[in-house]
Amino acid sequence: MINDIDILPVGIRDREEVIAYVLKTREHLFPMLNHQVIPRDLRDFSSTYVHTDVGAFLQARTKQGKLIGTIGMMAYDNRFPYFSFTGSKIVEVARLYVEPAYRKSGLGTALVQRLKTIGKQQGVELLYLHTHPFLEGAYEFWLKQGFDLVLACEESGFETLHMTLDKTKVITTDTFTSFMENR
């Protein structure tokens, strides 16, 4: 099944379809969010994922052209105050979506591996991501990809699991201690 799938960067002609797919999938997985607000990375897709030193957005398609999965990475913007990372080229992995019929086929792993390869070519020093326990199988999937749990905390009302590919590059800050004491 995986041999009949193409994984390639999102091009200009695919961009609108891919963004619509991501928004629809996000709405399904996160029905509690306000979907009238389009996330910054999707609003500024080109500058976030395409025209940047560190970033990429990949799509998976069947040989017939059906879009069945996505994954992206963007420069990490230090939006979480609980930790910082050593290194200058840090990316956040985001928007890994795989159609249910293709889950457990190796497609998710193939998307992650391709993203890691691009990251290496771009000189990325650390891959960071966050996920949530209510996303069935997500935490276990990321562990299998080599990511380690750095921190579990509540973020905007959701239990959030922060993970990196190299735990040695994480520095916890005093803000985290303060945050935990005030919970």
Automatic annotation (TrEMBL):
Pfam family, one: Acetyltransf_1
SUPFAM superfamilies the record matches: Acyl-CoA N-acyltransferases (Nat)
Molecular-function GO terms, alphabetical: acyltransferase activity, transferring groups other than amino-acyl groups
Signal peptide: none
Domain (N-acetyltransferase) ranges: 10-168
Keywords assigned: Transferase
Source organism, top-level taxon: Bacteria
Official protein name in the record: Histone acetyltransferase
Organism encoding this protein: Sphingobacterium haloxyli
Lineage start: Bacteria, Pseudomonadati, Bacteroidota, Sphingobacteriia, Sphingobacteriales
